[in-house]
Design brief:
With 376 residues, the protein is of the alpha/beta class. It contains 15 helices and 14 strands. The protein has 2 domains: 206 residues, Glycogen Phosphorylase B (Rossmann fold, 3-Layer(aba) Sandwich), CATH 3.40.50; 147 residues, 3-Layer(aba) Sandwich (Rossmann fold). 41% of the residues lie in helices and 15% in strands. The strands form 2 sheets. Strands 3-2-1-4-5-6-8-7 form an 8-stranded mixed β-sheet, sandwiched between helices. The protein has a 6-stranded parallel β-sheet with strand order 11-10-9-12-13-14, sandwiched between helices. Strand 12, helix 12 and strand 13 form a beta-alpha-beta unit. The longest helix has 20 residues. The chain is globular, with a radius of gyration of 20 Å. The termini are close together. About 3% of the residues have low confidence.
Length: 376
């Protein structure tokens, strides 16, 4: 059996690494070579900066991509169109039994569309997530990908429920088993979250940064276009950062996209302890998560990782796809309003997270995904 895995952005590298590792384990234990799963990795080049791409392949132990399409950045239509053309060429050459896509990026959408038009089964990892804000490009990517996928691999019960509400399937949910959906031979599976698998595996390899961390600090990240491309939102968020950091230090590994946007917003004052650092590796980020007091982010993945490390989170967006964390009070949606961000930090600094709550499985999502793919 042959599968093609399509990835292009840092969160997808992390998720794909989990499944690739489980595929290698599976291939070692099967008796017959005919039962093995041959994975071909296609890197679209969506994250083309070495600090955001190549270093993660090395650190996460991902097999080298057979194809690097080198698409780079651009407008959504331009980028997605270029990916469609090049991914189709790869699929026509490789003729896989299944195409595996992750998350909600332009790489996800292009991979799913290319495969669907060639009648190749599509498996979507992180299916069913919804923010219900169609002004987010990621939301459009999720919706379209889910509705053309053949195998919808869900991380949470909420994701399964979202697919039911959209009519993607109507049969009663039955735990973690596969379900046929409507008249198509579609399957929906609740497997847990591959990001939890990744944290469990890489926690033992966490890397201490070269500088000394404060005893208490906030870990912050900022990269979404809704914030970085809006001067008003960006200014208000950095104003909050500077005010908060007078009380508790903030460490901000800065995404290359954001670095270009912040000229004039990061002048330090003697009372401010906002420390901007270069992008960090995944294992360094795990160390930061271990040691921080609170997380502030507009990243989807980091909201969950904060929960995995039992750290409260303030989300610098107007909504989130991880609604279960908000309902439990572990994630505060603060948007970009300066006062609301400051108030949210004061509330969440004292928040305690119940270590026994199981929202995202037990760290076996990768193994379950391999079983699902093997049954295609």
């Amino acid at each position: 059996m042959k599968i093609v895995t399509i990835i292009g952005a840092r969160p997808q590298f992390i998720k794909a690494a989990v499944v690739s590792r489980e595929l290698a384990i599976y291939n070692q234990i099967v008796n017959s070579s005919s039962l093995r799963i041959n994975e071909k990795i296609v890197h679209t080049g969506q994250h083309y900066d070495d600090s955001m791409s190549q270093i993660f392949f090395k650190e996460l132990e991902i097999p080298a991509p057979e194809y690097n399409l080198g698409i780079g950045s651009g407008n959504h239509g331009e980028m997605t169109g270029a990916m469609l053309q090049k991914i189709e060429e790869v699929l026509l050459k490789e003729k896989p039994d299944c195409v595996l896509v992750y998350g909600d990026t332009n790489s996800t959408l292009a991979g799913a569309l290319s495969a669907a038009k060639l009648y190749i089964p599509v498996a979507h990892v992180e299916a069913g997530l919804r923010s219900y804000n169609r002004r987010m490009p990621e939301e459009i990517n999720r919706l379209v990908t889910d509705h053309i996928s053949d195998i919808l691999i869900c991380p949470t019960q909420q994701a399964v429920d979202n697919l039911k509400m959209e009519g993607i399937f109507n049969e009663p949910e039955s735990g973690r088993s596969l379900q046929k959906a409507n008249n198509r031979h579609r399957k929906v599976a609740l497997v847990g979250d591959v990001m939890l698998d990744s944290v469990i595996y890489h926690r033992q390899f966490s890397i201490k940064p070269q500088f000394e961390l404060p005893q208490q600090f906030i870990l912050a990240t900022l990269h979404r276009a809704e914030n970085t491309d809006n001067a008003g939102r960006l200014k208000a968020i950095f104003k909050a950062f500077k005010k908060i950091s007078r009380t508790i230090p903030i460490i901000l590994p800065l995404h290359p996209r954001t670095k270009k946007k912040i000229a004039g917003l990061i002048s330090q004052t003697s009372s401010s302890k906002l420390r901007i650092v270069e992008p960090v590796s995944y294992r360094e980020m795990i160390y930061f998560l271990e040691k921080c007091t609170l997380v502030m982010t507009d990243s989807g993945g980091l909201q969950k990782e904060a929960f995995f490390f039992k750290k409260p989170c303030v989300t610098l967006r107007d909504e989130t796809e991880w609604v279960e964390l908000v309902k439990l009070g572990y994630n505060y949606i603060a948007g970009s309003d300066t006062k609301q961000i400051i108030d949210a930090v004061q509330i969440m600094l004292n928040k305690k997270i119940d270590a026994k709550i199981d929202l995202y499985g037990q760290g076996e999502a990768g193994r379950r995904i391999v079983r699902i793919v093997q049954s295609v």
